[in-house]
Design brief:
Helix content is 31%, strand content 17%. The protein is of the alpha+beta class. A four-stranded mixed beta sheet has the order 2-1-7-6. Strands 3-4-5 form a three-stranded antiparallel beta sheet, with no helix packed on it. Helix 1 crosses helix 7, helix 4 runs parallel beside helix 6 and helix 5 crosses helix 6.
Length: 219
């Protein structure tokens, strides 16, 4: 997987539509509650962790760094919606392990890079590509909690990048259910939700995933 090719394909296929697709007037929440939701933003949740890059693959240090990098370079980016807790949205947030796996594949490494190295690889794709990838993980207009997600088999969600992802809900051998997200890449292992309801009770909610969603089909 060539880094320049990856960046070019993502930028061409996704960033052309990002400025027009964050539907701030999109429909209401799908949280299934009558109690009003809070307005704590996902950006506030992400930046509350002051530890920086570490060895915990289950948190979101690389994602946080990527969001901050985009907002620093492009203050008017649609990614800024993550800082406005009054806007309902659902984000599928890749954990650090997901970004390390992506960086390993992009950089054709034999072993997993550190979180810092993974961020360096991601940042090396260019700020427009990072922006497009981040927006591919955001579904504006609805607060989709765990209960709603588990009832959304085959649902097609329109992301803030303009493209769609498909929800695949399957029953596991132990009796529970697994939520997998089908992205545009037919060759990679699709991301699975590994942590539900981050920032629960607020208009902006997130679910942790174990792979990075890919907005283009890569060889």
């Amino acid at each position: 997987m060539n880094i320049a090719r990856l960046a070019t394909r993502i930028a061409a296929g996704a960033t052309a539509t990002v400025l027009a697709t964050v539907a701030l007037g999109a429909p209401a929440q799908a949280h299934g509650k009558t109690k009003p939701l809070g307005t704590r933003s996902l950006a506030a949740v992400l930046t509350a962790d002051k530890g920086g890059f570490d060895r915990n693959s289950r948190d979101f240090d690389v994602l946080t760094a990527a969001v901050l990098a985009v907002l620093k370079a492009k203050p008017g980016s649609p990614v800024k919606v993550l800082t406005d807790g009054s806007v309902a949205l659902t984000a599928f947030v890749p954990n650090d392990g997901a970004f390390r796996q992506l960086a390993k594949e992009v950089g054709k490494k034999k072993s997993l890079p550190t979180e810092k190295q993974a961020f360096g690889t991601v940042a090396g794709l260019g700020i427009d590509t990072v922006e497009a990838v981040l927006l591919y993980h955001v579904v504006p207009g609805a607060t989709i909690n765990r209960k709603a997600a588990l009832k959304s088999d085959n649902a097609k969600l329109t992301t803030a990048a303009g493209a769609k992802i498909t929800v695949d809900v399957t029953r596991c051998w132990w009796g529970g259910k697994r939520v997998t997200l089908i992205d545009a890449d037919r060759n990679d292992r699709n991301p699975r939700v590994v942590a539900f309801d981050i920032n629960k009770g607020n208009k902006q909610i997130a679910h942790g995933i174990d792979r990075v969603l890919r907005p283009v089909d890569l060889p």
